[in-house]
Amino acid sequence: MKDSVNHIKQKTGANNCKNFDHNSFGKHPRRLRVVGAAVLALGSIALATQSAQALSPLGFVNGITSSGGVGVSKDILYGDEPLQDLDIYYPKPLAQAMKAQSAINNDYPMVVFVHGGSWESGNKDQYAFVGQSLAQAGYVTAVINYRKVPEHVYPDYVNDTAQAIAWSIENAASLHANPSRVAVMGHSAGAFNAVAAVANEDFLAPYGIKPTDIATVIGIAGPYSYDFRKFSSASAFPSDATPDQVMPDRQIKGAQPPYLLLTAEKDKVVHPTNALKMTQALKEAGVTVQTGEIEGASHATIIGAMAPPLRWVNDVRAQVVTYLDTMLK
């Protein structure tokens, strides 16, 4: 295999917050960094094991999640700014073939996952269990970072999500994934990012990507339709912004892929009306939408139960994987 990877770098530097401009989404395209398979296999790949983080529920989930033999390439930049990086998780057969430098004759479906945290906390490492879980189910999975408040407010984190999606599609073949079988998935604030980045075609347009280039979008407990000005999350939005300017249910533009919107029965953080309003808006735009409520799930366990050892907590993993298998395989 040829050593053809460029621009796999560590995070550096800092950046100032952009001003909100509703009419300038994505007018500053960044060069997509091309990633080849060779160094991903030989230089970056490692068996995916995570140590528990003290006093961190997410660290606990990672600590008890078996790698299942999946592989991971860490800290790959999809952009030039700090936190514009991602990790790639590989299904076990693919990881083994890459490590052995064996011939790889098939490609895999791919999922791009966006973590939550009210746009101010969380990172890709804390959600390693999602990457591992989806890789165990047969999906090459990108778990992304994105820039956060207070330095960055809307639309920066949505722009980052769009750029990561575009990077993943552009580099899918180098990762032995099929660029026509890419799903985007997010939880909580990450679901907002994922849905917003796809629902409004202006976010993907600078990269020559259309929403319909994505096979499907999965939103898990996302705040797609609320008046942020009444909550502490107001700090994640420009001071002069209104819900009509930023909420995804009011920003649908362009032909869309199918959506799956899941809610948690016992969610005390994000009210289910967010998904109801997003579903209504998508259907009014002629978009195919499936919905589901995860019984017994809270805002935390609706994503925590994606970890295979916690699948007994609720059936979110089964629902997500069944849907992905139907849409991508």
Automatic annotation (TrEMBL):
Domain BD-FAE-like: 104-281
Pfam families the record matches: BD-FAE
Keywords: Hydrolase
UniProt keyword Hydrolase present: yes
Domain of life: Bacteria
A GO term for molecular function: hydrolase activity
Gene3D superfamilies: alpha/beta hydrolase (3.40.50.1820)
The protein's name in its UniProt record: Acetyl esterase/lipase
